[in-house]
Amino acid sequence: MVHAAQFWDAQAEKYAKQPIANEAAYDATLDRTRYYLDEGQRVLEVGCGTGTTALRLCDNVREYVGSDFSSGMIRIASEKAFEKGARNVAFKTAAVGEIADKNTPFDAVLGFNLLHLLPTLDEDLKRIASVLKPGGLFISKTFCGLGPKAPLKWRLMKIALPILQALGKAPYVRFQREAELREQIEAHGFEILETRHFVTDVSVPFIVARKIA
To answer: In the sheet that 63-68 helps form, which strands lie side by side, from edge to edge?
Structure first.
């Protein structure tokens, strides 16, 4: 199976050109995220991809750091930031396990469309908690894929994935129930503040969690 970073590097140009699949759900996600942000915060986004979300949210905070383990994604994100003239956002190539920096801790960590792609989710949630201030927020929206609302196409995809992965045509994807994801987040020292659903045909919960200590 193609290494994850290599897979996403190869996808970066195509990914950057793809339109947002569900504009209404995406805009609702951004609006609700902005509710928790303020101009004094230092924010980290893990798995930032080509920087679309970062560049839409960076004006709402003091400093915004976007990280992704794909150098191809980060290159495109940095180019977009330069073109926009965004001075309070910086992008760096880093896996979730490498996100700490000299100015850690952060006021908030964001992770959108990411957690289901992490094969070491428990370790990564532990690292996310470690770079947050006490009372800091972890805001995520993540595909779960299992449960009564799971459409047939996702059940079929789960069967086909091992073959596609062996051919280098698909990345690692975690299928789990929403309740399991919430329990994992809570197990790493978080209190769930809210869960919302901006997508109705499959489980993609928007979760806001606060670091307890």
So the answer is: 89-93, 63-68, 42-46, 106-112, 132-141, 205-211, 190-197
pTM over 0.70: yes
Q: Is 153 exposed, middle or buried (0-12, 13-18, 19+ CB in 10 A)?
A: exposed
Per the CB < 8 A criterion, the answer to whether 66 and 42 are in contact is no
Reported as half-sphere exposure (CB side, CA atoms, 13 A), residue 199 has a value of 20
Coil vs helix vs strand at 61: coil
Extended strands (E) in the chain: 42-46, 63-68, 89-93, 106-112, 132-141, 190-197, 205-211
Question: Average pLDDT, stretch 164-179?
Answer: 81
The alpha helices in 63-212, defined as continuous H runs, are: 71-84, 121-130, 152-166, 178-187
For residues 140 and 110, the answer to whether their CB atoms sit within 8 Å is: yes
Omega within 30 of 0 (cis) for the link into 151? no
Find the distance separating the first CA and the last CA of the chain, reported in whole Å.
Answer: 39
Token duo for residue 125 = 């949630």
Instruction: State the pLDDT at residue 76.
Output: 97
pLDDT above 90: residue 48: yes
Single out the residue of 193, 191, 44 nearest to residue 106, CA to CA: 44
Q: How far apart are CA 35 and CA 163, in angstroms?
A: 41
Nearest to 68 by CA among 129, 113, 19: 113
In the three-class reduction of DSSP (H, G, I as helix; E, B as strand; rest coil), residue 20 is classed as coil
